[in-house]
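so my prof wants the structure for this chain in the tokens format not the other one, which i didnt know existed until like an hour ago. anyway here's the sequence
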Amino acid sequence: MSMELNKNQIELLSPCGDYERLELALKYGADAVYLGGNMFTMRAAPKNFNDEELSKGISLAHSLGKKVYLTCNVYPHSAELALLPDFIAKARNAGVDGFIIADLGVLQIAKKVAPEVDIHISTQAGITNYESAGFFRDLGASRIVPARELSLEEIAELRAKTDKDLEIECFVHGAMCMSFSGRCLLSSYMVGRDANLGMCAQPCRWQFDIMDVTRPGIKYPVTEDEHGTYFMNSRDMCMIEHIPELIAAGINSFKIEGRAKSAYYTAVVTNAYRQAIDGFYNTPTPDYKPEQWILDEMDKVSHREYSTGFYFKHPDKDANIDYKGGYINNWDVVAFVERADGQILTLSQRNKFLPEDELEILEPNKEPVKFKAGELFDEDMNIISSANHAMMTVKIKTDKVFEQGSLVRKQK
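here's what i got, hopefully its the right format
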């Protein structure tokens, strides 16, 4: 394994579904963020960014020396293309650092309208070999996101047989799709929501039974479990214990999935991977493992059963099916730190908590701190029995100092 890469060559790339998540991603250690505008994005469900928010977000990122990539990774129909040049031009004028693109027509328009902006080829393009990667480089791409079905061995071969100025970005954490590189017609077929236009209803996560057409209304579970089975429901990916292998394969950017997930998820997962990457560079050995508290963070966000995706096993050997269904969700964010001056901790409430609750505060780049809530006060320092109103100001007496924006959580 080569240990020649330095920290600045590995980018930690975090998802942002809105401006709050962008702020937290940057605060908790992302080197770059990716986000969607008000159209042409594969995640239509999140709030996403209008023109004003995009400019504001880019300005914040650039002031911190970080980057913003805009997703334009849908497969648009001809009728929608007329809106694309203006969309690309506005993003270019706002200062976006790169476009994430899957469709060749979108790529062609981006090259004409914004030739100075980097082009990243989305995983939706399904790049599985070095010839395809080189082809997209010849078309002007500066980065590719290979198909998520590739193993680390295949990525290493792709790296070895492509020009070194072509960057490789790979997902290291988050939800996986049962389709090939996210290209799926199931949602469109079943509920009329086109996944390739960002409107996936995720029917692959649904619970299914078999029904004999000669016995209408009588359902048979696919397994002997009376609740049926989730035979298309994929596990989530988690590669935080495999930082050395990812780096050795030649990956330049570690990408976290989750633009539709919460601000809490964005902060916690970004922070954990930041600590894991930095921990590796402090001890750059092939057998490096993050500290236990970093690994524990993975269980403090909502997730399905974890796997290592297809990095070590081919899809025909292990399909990564989550047979349980649903999410594991054992922690709630209850507040964010507004101020902590060594006397009073001022919080902005998000979920109910009580004086007897055991809480944790997670600051950027630090191990979480446990404490008992204790006596609670409102903004006028009147004692209150609980923090039970969303966005209310709650105060706690403490001699500890915490960074503004740190999150406060409790175990369910």
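also thought this was worth mentioning. The CA atoms of residues 151 and 310 lie 6 Å apart.
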